[in-house]
Design goal:
Layout: H1 19-33, E1 35-37, E2 42-44, H2 46-51, H3 57-74, H4 79-96, H5 101-108, H6 111-122, H7 132-168
Antiparallel strand pairs: 1-2
Helix pairs in contact: 1-3, 1-6, 3-4, 3-6, 3-7, 4-5, 4-6, 4-7
Length: 169
Amino acid sequence: MSEPVHIPEVLESDENLPPDLQRLRAFASLLDEAVRIPGVNRRVGLDAALGLIPGVGDVITAVMSAWIISGALRHRVPTPKVLRMIWYVIVDLLFGAIPLAGDVLDMLFKQNVRNMKILMQHRNRRLPPRRTSEIAASVTLIVILLVGVALLVLVGTVGAIIWIAAQRN
């Protein structure tokens, strides 16, 4: 009899996960894969829908995505992986500011599901999850960083619009 094959990309079923990870997995799916687009075999979620709201939609979803990053901190995902997760949210935030291109990116680059996979693959199962009080300062700084990037994008967008308008005169 042969040895069972181990495929690392296969994630645990929800029944084997702690309740907070079950909620995070459902949340990531809601943000990125809630609805199937008929005829294209693609799924989109709340991230793409809110991204259609100019100026604030991508900021809202970036802050919502911080919940998955807080789950990574809680479950002791290594710092380089958490930084990659933050980077994915920032990329989504930056490109989300570009009309149409940002909406297409939301359909193709499912950063919440991707971040959830990182969390699931790299969480430390040997140690108990951290308490909320242990990660609160880090999560607060991450949210401040995301809002700061969003404000820079907003200022840059307004500046570009003013510059383009000035060039037309």
